[in-house]
Every structure is written in C-alpha cells, then in structure tokens.
Amino acid sequence: MNHERGLLIAAFISLCVLLTGGTFLFKHIEGWSTLDAFYFTGITMMTVGYGDIAPKTPAGKIATVIFTFVSVGIALYSVNLIARLAFRQKLESIEWLKKKTNGQALKQSSSNQQNNSDGHQDK
Fold this sequence. Notes:
The protein is mainly alpha-helical. It has one domain: Helix Hairpins, CATH 1.10.287.70. The protein has helices spanning 2-30, 34-45, 58-101, 104-117.
C-alpha cells in the first residue's frame, strides 16, 4: 500500500511538472502569455481541446503532439492508480467489517437490499 501511495505521489508530481513545463514550453515557442500557455497546457493535458487557442508555429504543433502523448499517458496512469487504491481500500474495509461483525452486518444489509428489490419496505 505504501508503494502505491508513493507511485501516486510521483504521478501527481509528474502531472505538476508537466503542467509547469508545458506552460513555459508553449509560452516560449508560441510567444503566448503565461495565462494562455497555462490554459492551453491544462486543456491539452485533459484532452479537452476547445480550439480557442492553437499553436501556429511548426515547432509548437510538433511540441503539442509530443506533449499530448506524454501528458495523457501520465494522466491515465494516475487515474488508474487512484482507482486501484480506492478499490483496494473498499475491499479492506469490507473485510474488516466482516471480521468485526462475523459477517452479520453484511448479511443484514444484503437481506434488506433483497427485500427492497422485491418491493418490500424496511420498517
């Protein structure tokens, strides 16, 4: 679990570095303001691409393609890590609850859910 949290922190730091680096890259290559470069970097990293700002220079276009491949890959990796960590924590909490109650709370909960799906109301 600590290894996954370390990977999650590294992925978050990588996203921040990409956001900062992309901002400076596009500011330099395209001559945009810091805000415009930051905005373009963010929407490119999230694959939104509104189209209101687009690179005009050949170097900017090439940088955008490379930047998009790298940043989207890291973003997807980060989402994968978050999902795995959340899923594992959910499983661990279910296992803890089973041990704590000897499974009684889960049996009661599933019985209530089954009754509700059959049209019966809890009282």
